[in-house]
Amino acid sequence: MWKYRLSALLTLVLGCLLGWYIYNSEVTGSRPFRLGLDLSGGTQLVYKADVSAIPGGDVNESMNALRDTIERRVNIFGVAEPLVQTEKGGTLAGESQQRLIVELPGVTDTERAIAMIGQTPTLEFRMLKEGASVPAEGQSVPDMNALFEPAAVTGKNVERAELQFGQGGGLANEPVVVLHFDSEGKQIFADLTRENVGKIFGIFLDGVPISTPVIREVIPDGTAVISGNFTPDSARELVRNLNYGALPVPIELLTTETVGGTLGAEAVEDGIMAGLWGVGAVILFMLLWYRLPGLIASLALAIYILTSLALFKLIPVTLTAAGIAAFILSIGMAVDANILIFERMKEELKAGKGTQDAIRDGFARAWLSIRDSNISSMITAIILFWFGTSLVKGFALVFGLGVLISMLTAISVSRTFLLALGFAAEKGFARFLFGSGVK
Amino acid sequence: MLIIKYRKVFFALTGILLLLSLASVAFFGLTLGTDFTGGVLAEVRYGADRPGVEELSQSLENAGFTGHIVRESENNAYIIRAGNVSSEVRSKLQDTTSLGNRFPATIERFTEIGPTVGIELRNKSLIALSLVLVCILLYIAFAFRKVSQPVSSWIYGMIALVTLLHDVIVPSGFFALLGYLFGAQVDTLFVTAILTIVGFSIHDTIVVFDRTRENLRINQETRRKEDFEITAGRSLNQTFVRSVNTSVTVLISLGALFFFGPESTQDFALTLIVGIIAGTYSSIALATPLLVAYERWKVKRI
Fold this sequence. Notes:
The complex is a heterodimer.
Chain A: H1 2-27, E1 34-35, H2 37-40, E2 42-49, H3 59-76, E3 83-89, E4 97-105, H4 110-118, E5 123-128, H5 144-147, E6 148-150, E7 158-165, E8 175-181, H6 183-195, E9 201-205, E10 208-211, E11 223-226, H7 232-246, E12 251-259, H8 261-290, H9 292-314, E13 318-319, H10 321-334, H11 336-350, H12 355-387, H13 390-421, H14 428-434
Parallel strand pairs in A: 1-13
Antiparallel strand pairs in A: 2-4, 2-12, 3-4, 5-6, 5-9, 7-8, 8-11, 9-10
Chain B: H1 2-5, H2 7-28, H3 34-37, E1 39-46, H4 53-63, E2 69-73, E3 77-82, H5 87-91, H6 93-98, E4 105-113, H7 115-143, H8 153-182, H9 188-221, H10 228-260, H11 266-301
Antiparallel strand pairs in B: 1-3, 1-4, 2-3
């Protein structure tokens, strides 16, 4: 008895702590709920990358280069917390596809978003104008045309770039990047270097200078060596950018999804409203139908809600409108285990057992049914998660978590509380509280 | 148990319900949504004044949005559906819906899905649906593997499958009607709703069958002779309140979602509501009566 009372007390304290954590992390903003684009407002773009021209082994690398490029491009435009990721998909449509998924929170102008990403990565060469100062590498230059003029050689003339060590005339083992031009580029580059010895040559990827070497001598053989303050890693990255920036992966827009901020905010508000009404009405029903056990089930429901919300923050789960729908649905389903148990308890009471025995037997007998029925819900959740688009995945994850957590809370929490009460509800008012429907 | 005794009445009722649902699907048809066909889905909101449907429709036609459908929505908004468009046409959406600034419009939501993605989602949905049905059938056959007298375990599975079909057909018929009346379209959320219904309704049927299994075992242990019909009826009676109550709490929360929840999940909530009612009905008035009918038929044959 005291063992149960202690656990019940601990459960209550834990519930309060969870509630405090959820409230506090939301108010201070230290760990707010993560909202999907359909709730926070923003744009999601899915592209198909045409990798047919790229040899099989290089596909992953070129996709990574593409991702980095797009990420850089999106960052230049000042989007907060963008998400750029690659995905392999489309096998069910008959062909395997390399995809690029770009999520831009807060960007609600579809056209602007598409324009931001639309072009394929471009490699450019420019010459620094007389007297202009050299801009920092890796940062976008606002007045680029004031500082640089286009060079005769273009990114299309680059055949490939390669990483070498210690041949740039500098220290041994210093990493350098070697550009190889095609036959046309070789000629142009030879002329260009002859006329511009001592000047600064800028290499740009998407308008950002990635290297600004000085032309030291005429280069007739169509190779340019870029030496600078490279680490092996940064040189390797440059080589990758040059190779795949020079041979850009063409991308084609597959799907776009934009949700305005107002619509998202309204959906959140409506979702909270529906949740409150749902919880309130379910609790009212449980109290009216089951009386005291109904109160215990409501407590278990509260613990379930707090645990889920805390987990949504901790995992973290990205909440979408479908996810909120799943959560509200799970509130209705969470009390199912309690209903099963309480109906069993009533039968045991009717059969003339004492209250404590009825509670114990009710729980023990209902367990098999609870387990079996939850397994079928889990099967659905898992298949939905596997099948899902991001929308359906959001539903399936919340639904699956809900089934698992509610099974634990409905059984263990309500059992602890019921036993902790220590009722011997054999007659009178106590019997009334306990034995709804038992004569 | 009343339902067992008058099972033929309930079979007839179920039959009529199924026929009506199938007729609704056949007659109104299930319109595939943007998710599955590819195309454009936009929600456009207006200030105090919004153009008429005809006017907006004409403007869209002129701009090159082919095959569009305009549906009125809450908050002075329209939901527009159309086929895939070129980027040129897409960029004109704002102007087109504002009718040259006469009705300033805000594009609240814009989704465009490419045709290949649509086909992919369609295939995925079909696979998911079959996979759920197969997994659940296997699961039931496994759960009931020890029951064989007087009805063998795979009959339980088959009957569960029949109730599942019922639970899928009824909301589909309802959704076809919804599509006919309000232009609702079958999208990934609809498929999600159907799969959730399947998971939930099987859960209900399992509880009833589980009780039958338990009572059969107790009868065997106590060497009590009882007609299968009586045992099944008693089991149904014992689980009846639980079935109804669980559905009531789920319906309460879905009702809250439908009335107060976000607009984007309203069709979803309504489909679930219909499906849950159908699922509860079938697990009470179809599953056990079928079990008894099968047993009677078997006895008569011998």
